[in-house]
Amino acid sequence: MNRSLPARTGRAAVAVTAALAVVTAAAPAASAHPARPAGGTLILVGGGLKDDNAEIYREIVARAGGAGSARIGVLTAASVPPSQDPNAADPATCSNSACNGAYYADLFERYGAADAQWIPIDIEHVAAADSDAVVAQVDAMTGFFFGGGDQYRYVTSLLHGDAHTDSKVLAAIRAKLAAGAVVSGSSAGAQIASGPDMVTGGDSYQALRDGSAPGYFEDPTRLGYLPGGGFGFFGPGLLDTHTGTYGREGRAVRLAADTGHDRVFAMDEDTAVEVEHAGTRAESVRVLGSHGVGVLDLRHARSRTDPAGWSVTGVAYSYLTDGDGYDPRTWQVIPADGKRRLRPTGTEPVPTDHDAFYAVDDPDGVPYAFSGTARALAATRVQRTATADTYESAPAFRITFTKRGDFRAWTADGSTAASFADLDLAIAPVAP
């Protein structure tokens, strides 16, 4: 779930009544969705997708058929409907489903799509998700983009209740993906691609201290998850978004440990995980964008809770940046062309960071502290271990990063670590 959805600027929002004119009533579909899709491409962005990120937008257009041919369907049901947006009448500041849909449609056309259309579904127009007319609109598209907001609005508008079955529109999108279409999304629009135990909110410190629980909570710091998950498009592991910006690595590790998952893809902002041949034996992963994606491997992790608090050891932490690949079957990082093995030359020690998860109460905190400490350790030759602590205490938690025998790092400039694989990670409460 996003902490906020920025206001959109650009062309005026299309009128809701005009867009909904295509909607006709239809009986709900009852077919349950399969565990995974097959065949197409997923491009899932960790939020904060910048308008000028040509690499990601053009990749979506290319996977949808290329400039001049791509037809993109834009879904923004995670946004509030126009009736709940106090700025709905102002195209410069509005941030609602129709306004955001028009905004992204315009953006995709500027990046070369032959056509981009808002799919007129939101929490006040749930019936549209079972409209044959909207299904026909979806069937005419070659790619899809899910915008940000609150992923639970996607659950309530495109899935059927506790049964978690597909609406007609979602079933049509799933079929398009299986047939080779691209499905993309940012923030909540990426998170909703999750399978079981989709994260619903929470901050890292509270997650480490208190653990997780199923549900959505009014307290945004409490770690929650939805056991039934989202749409189940993404199969290789759990997903998390806005990772470095909001310091979510801790909550990602805790949720995986609590729910029995052995892998998390923790995506930074303005950065995407691209999955080709999604759901098939040929499935492969590539990273695109300006920051990175953490892969947290818990196959050999051990967690425990004692009177001092919760702790975990044996997590393998990899960090992939632009162009790097990942094979989810072999768990191997594949460095991008142009990156070479890093031979550490740094002689400065890596200081302990005292706000590993960028606490909102710390005026001196900085984003990307967690991955920054790990990359600094990768680049130095004077130590094999570095630490970072939580800003919060009672108890404080310490993260210990260790370069063991299978650790590897890669560089693009010869001195700094662009990417690394299999850094050992442990988290434990600190004695007062």
Automatic annotation (TrEMBL):
<keyword id="KW-0720">Serine protease</keyword>
<dbReference type="Pfam" id="PF03575">
    <property type="entry name" value="Peptidase_S51"/>
</dbReference>
<dbReference type="InterPro" id="IPR029062">
    <property type="entry name" value="Class_I_gatase-like"/>
</dbReference>
<keyword id="KW-0732">Signal</keyword>
<dbReference type="GO" id="GO:0004180">
    <property type="term" value="F:carboxypeptidase activity"/>
</dbReference>
<keyword id="KW-0645">Protease</keyword>
<keyword id="KW-0121">Carboxypeptidase</keyword>
<comment type="similarity">
    <text>Belongs to the peptidase S51 family.</text>
</comment>
<feature type="signal peptide">
    <location>
        <begin position="1"/>
        <end position="29"/>
    </location>
</feature>
<protein>
    <submittedName>
        <fullName>Cyanophycinase</fullName>
        <ecNumber>3.4.15.6</ecNumber>
    </submittedName>
</protein>
<dbReference type="InterPro" id="IPR005320">
    <property type="entry name" value="Peptidase_S51"/>
</dbReference>
<dbReference type="GO" id="GO:0008241">
    <property type="term" value="F:peptidyl-dipeptidase activity"/>
</dbReference>
<keyword id="KW-0378">Hydrolase</keyword>
